[in-house]
Amino acid sequence: MKRASIILAAMLLLAAPAMAAPVEITLWRHDTGDLEMTAGKAAVERFNHAQSRWKVTVEAIPQGSYTESITAASLVGQLPCIIAMDQPTVPNFAWTGHVRPLDGLLPADAVAGLLEGGRGTFNGHLYSVGQLDVVLALFARRSQLSALGVRVATIEQPYSAAEFHDILLRAKRSGRFRFPLDVNGAFKGEWYSYAFSPWLQSAGTDLVDRASYLRVDGVLNSAAAVSVGRYYGRLFKDKLAERRPADDKAFEQGRSLIHYTGSWKAREYSERFGADLVAMPPPDFGHGPRIGAASWQWGITRTCRQPEGAAAFLAYLISPAEIAAASRATGLVPLSVEGAALTEHYRPDGDWRIYFEFARRYAVSRPATPAYPALSSAFEKAMADIRSGKDAAEALDEAVDAIEHNIARNNGYGFTARKPGGGS
Amino acid sequence: MNRLSPNRGARRLLRDAALLLAMSALGIVFVAPLLFMVISSLKSDAAIFANLNSWSAYLPSSDWSLRNYSAVFEKSELPAFLLNSSLIAAPIVVGGVLVNSMLAFSIARMRWRGRQPVLALVVAMVIVPFEVIAIPLLSLVARLPWPGIEHGQLVMHTGWFNSLHVQVIPFLANAFCVFLFYQFFRDIPPELDEAAKMDGAGPWTIYARIIMPNSGPVIATAAIVLFISAWNQYLWPIMVIQGQAFRPVQPGIQQFFGRTNSWGQIMAYASVITLPVLAVFLLFQRQFVASVAGSGVKG
Amino acid sequence: MKPTLGQDSRRSVALFAAPALLLFVLFVALPMLLAAGATLTNHRLMSPEPTRYIGLDNYRRLLALDLVVIEPLRDARGALVRDEEGAGPRYPTWRQVRQQHPQLEGYRAAFHLDAGSSRIVLAASDPLFYRSLINTFLFAALVLPLQCGAALGLALLVNQKIRGRIFFRTVYFAPVVTSMVVASIVWAFMLNTDRGMLNELLRGLLHDPNAGPDWLGDSHYALPAIALMSAWQGAGFQMLVFLAGLQSISPELYEAATLMGANAWQRFVHVTLPGLRNTIIFVLVSTTLLAFGLFTQVDVMTSGGPLDSTSTVVYHAVRSGFKEQDVGYGSTITLVFFLIVLALSVLQRMLVAKGASK
Lengths: 424, 299, 358
Prior knowledge:
The complex is a heterotrimer. Chain A folds into 2 domains: 19-134 and 295-351, D-Maltodextrin-Binding Protein, domain 2 (3-Layer(aba) Sandwich), CATH 3.40.190; 136-291, 3-Layer(aba) Sandwich (D-Maltodextrin-Binding Protein, domain 2), CATH 3.40.190. Mean pLDDT of chain A is 87; it is low at 419-424. Chain A is an alpha/beta fold. Chain A is built from 16 helices and 14 strands. Chain C has 2 domains: 65-124, no CATH class; 128-325, MetI-like (MetI-like fold), CATH 1.10.3720.10. In chain C, 62% of the residues lie in helices and 6% in strands. Chain C has helices at 10-38, 57-63, 94-100, 127-159, 165-177, 180-190, 197-206, 222-247, 251-259, 264-275, 277-292, 296-302, 313-323, 327-357, and strands at 65-70, 108-115, 118-124. Mean pLDDT of chain C is 82; it is low at 1-5. The chains are: A alpha/beta, B mainly alpha, C mainly alpha. At the B-C interface, helix 1, helix 4, helix 5, helix 6 and helix 8 of B face helix 1, helix 4, helix 5, helix 6 and helix 8 of C.
């Protein structure tokens, strides 16, 4: 055995000039739950073993300060080849020139198979791809709903916003639930835009006018948006949801009737409640329920010296087999039809197929503009102020002000006004 | 203290008891959050939440265990982070005490033009919070050279990112410590210097043999200030360290939050990074007390 | 008595002063100058556009103020329109006000005063800056007595010749060594409205199941809550400083006072306090300076809310500069703030010097 390995080593040494050692490709990702980290590591190992030209190495950065770390590194030109990005921030990275377009680098059919949430585009070009997504849902328990005489919402018949409010009031009056609805009040950051800007879209409006990406006035503070804002504020005024919960276990411990959260909780809740668990579409504000789409995706930096290697890894990741493997390991929603068909939970007769359907029917990406971080930050502040009692019209007006200022300050982020007076 | 009459003795006992009670009551207020942290680290998550509403949050539960600690050591690179933080804190304390006391000595004890303006500038720098200079400092540090050895040759790398020295060198000079040393040195009687100068001692001898040995309390204080600021560094490592290799403990705990949902484990992590510091302080404290009692310089 | 005449040799001075000064220049002064330079530009953190010189635009945006009076909304018959809860008259939203008063373009409401049914509004181009400034001073005013008072009290206690005082000293110092992140989490737990320790205690004491304010969620309580937490965390350190000061007071002075018939209170006022004079000044000054730099607790616990009641100047600067990526503007905020604090410390020194010379 030893002799064989010596011979092998000698052969490799001799062949070295002809067959170079695998070129190293660095990848930075955000540090997140165990399941995702292990799944990610396994995928990298599979890729490294499947071919000998490239070797991907992973560096994990704490999620809470991920953007700051990436920003600091980009400032001084120290970005790796591949970076993970939260999809809505991709246009910003593209605009600042940190990531390169993937159009020529990835096979077109692989990309075409992805659902909307699997692609990050800006100005007509593709900049990032993702394997998995998370969908928003109203989680509840059938037993508790029927005990209150409340119907279960379905895809065909979701709750209307008014109906939803009534249900919560009924639950509160029953005395059994201190705060019938849990909306993750303790979360910070992107959650607000992710979870509540779909309510704007469901009401027929949006964060920004997507035709021009320049107009916010009359969109974010339109009558429809203000009514959504007031609806949200009333949830806290009527004590239907808790402003600052101590933890996110209210639903699991029976203190809340409904938990409005992402399907990352699906596995945990199914294990705990089994068939009693029901995942319902979010409330309909008039134009059908909507959910945020797209989660963390992968892009290639402009300073990468081996873009083909990086592209090879990305193409590998979005193959149906890999998407299926990732979904199996983490329980999250696979972003391609073929991938879904290969998994136990998300295939057409799987028990979690409903999340896949939510993704297919309701998902709307967040606005693809480099102004997105500013949009999200202003919206988050507006919601926080509404939660604390500020009038929704005033809070949204302030958000519009802040965003307009930001867009003007950045010369429209490269978008040009099609009508006079867009941006100042 | 020569009140020995029995009446006084009894009163003294009462007074001591009252004092003890007051100190304990205050002690509870001060230590409650930390007690909560340590006790919770020994409980399972369910027990933590079950006990949250009552006093049993401060008492260990019947099924206490070190499970959370073993999970922390498995899941995270905590020992590496602890090592990094120690390797950062030690030079900052030693180097900082040296460098800052030397500057204070030169201002307090030496005569030179520009002494007063320099003092004023240093005091002005105490006001500057770190966050203010963080971004320009980032650009600066990305362009500074640093020597390294590659293939047996001396080469110059550009940029200090992802290293230990980037977390040490910018923090050696500490305006607050300079100010502490200056105030203290000013109060040391100059007669001691005079005597040494008569014997032909130069400034270095005065510094090393007279001033510093009599400065136990301020050295201990400065050491504590430097150590704490080094141990608690958070914003800066986030900006300049993008890999595990040189990450210190505070960003480490942030990383840990992202990884786990378990409050018990988070409390265990927090305990591991807090208790050793307390132990170091306990050690230092005795020095502090000894030197103050033995200095006999003041009063 | 001054040391020997003449000046020390340049080389020896340089040897002692140079290392620290060099480090200060490179790592503090230089970045500050860069930041000052950035205030005259529109430098952004990440942008494909080149940085432009914009003169004093940032300063104008930061400091501009204007005063305006708004009339409430009236319906067709001229009666006041009431808001949802019927609490007070409804006023036009700020955008509507701006349409009526075009000179307010770019301004937002900072503070308002209701006089009768009209509303007097002080509008600023950056109302958050003014609110943050007030919050910062308010915070310093709250924290100063809490922290220094507690520190003095603790030092007095721990200075007594009683068993276990080293143990207590460590206990009181424990919060100082706790990392801000950890402390914020534990305190957030304890301040939770529904299930937190503090409110449970209040509910028990007052026998009222609804007692206990929403500490971090109510704009009136959030800043005091953070002040409480900061005092808790900082008192131990100032206690040590006071301790050193106390131990430097000669015991003979106390004995003399006792012989003259002074009781404990009189001894405190006439021996302890004067002896601590320099220490007290030092503690007050350093606590004030540290209070002005409040950032981490706000960042971790409240993100400047609720309703901007805990936003401090440094927090506003970091958010503008780093999160919203407007480095030019963030630097402007910090520079102006630095000048304000500098002016205050100079003022403080002059007052102290005057008091000393009396």
